[in-house]
């Protein structure tokens, strides 16, 4: 039985108080993380109006409803400003579903286990980096499950992007122009290998001075196939990554300047390296982090967002926009509490970005919405993720002994040029590359994550 005497204003007052006081623990009626750590019912942390969209909207919206221009005002404060514009002005529809009640379904299993095992062991050193109390690089899981400030909240996103020690995403992308038509379609592969901050607690090949290797290479269409980029991240978050790129037209690898992180990877796409996981740049190359608020949000985090079994390649139906192909069908639910985080790119003198705003689910410390502003303070672009435990009534995709958890699709919308890139984590893409989290016997480092690999993949 949940307490029902608390109204919306009570929760808002408590969120405001926690923000002002710098209280890191999530929860309104009780601290959230102790409930998670003890495998208890996390709904005890919130009043009913934060657990039920029907109660929150006083009966105006309920699970099973579809948000359209006709009823979006009832949830306007639960959407980022660009998502609201999508529905209000561009014909987008958002399906409302029952919220996830089992918190273990919004983490990869090994990542949650590492978070529980290593709780309380993370500290920020004098150099601003995260270490264990014995001074070693971070040993896996979320370092700050109850972040007390913006830096801790951002580190939760930065140290392990996909929350797997290794990830390979086969990505199919469609780029929609301002008239609503398809201007480009790309296949690419995105690979991440953490050397530190690993869920298995090891340091990969002793490389404790590094955080990750990350590459992206395009496999289609033919005129872009072979275009590739390699990021090598220092563990020291004051340092800029080495950024290498291979452009087939020039048939050579070159090193790119740091400000290349705020530009499209290929023509027509709106994806920047800086966008990745709302943490695409080393943490200390940004600054002025601050938690500006806490609030409920609508987030796409449930299994309905995984389309495996419904489509051979896990692709999704589309709708909306001038030609009815701008948006994926998405399923959102009420997230009871999000941290609202802001930061500025202080280490990039010529960055076109003025600031970012990130909404982070306090339960798993993963972002559910992200927007950037230009240097004039105008909203520029959103990067909206859709996550899922990858099981449904048609199929289950496994990650070792457990169902896999990951992102399933993204809307990346440049609102100023009105260009939308929407992409899915597909089963496979041109070239036969498949999404996976276990490389098996494949030497993925030499195959995908070196300068020589970039040249070979591009050749």
Automatic annotation (TrEMBL):
Protein name: DUF1329 domain-containing protein
Phylogenetic classification of the source organism: Bacteria, Pseudomonadati, Pseudomonadota, Gammaproteobacteria, Cellvibrionales
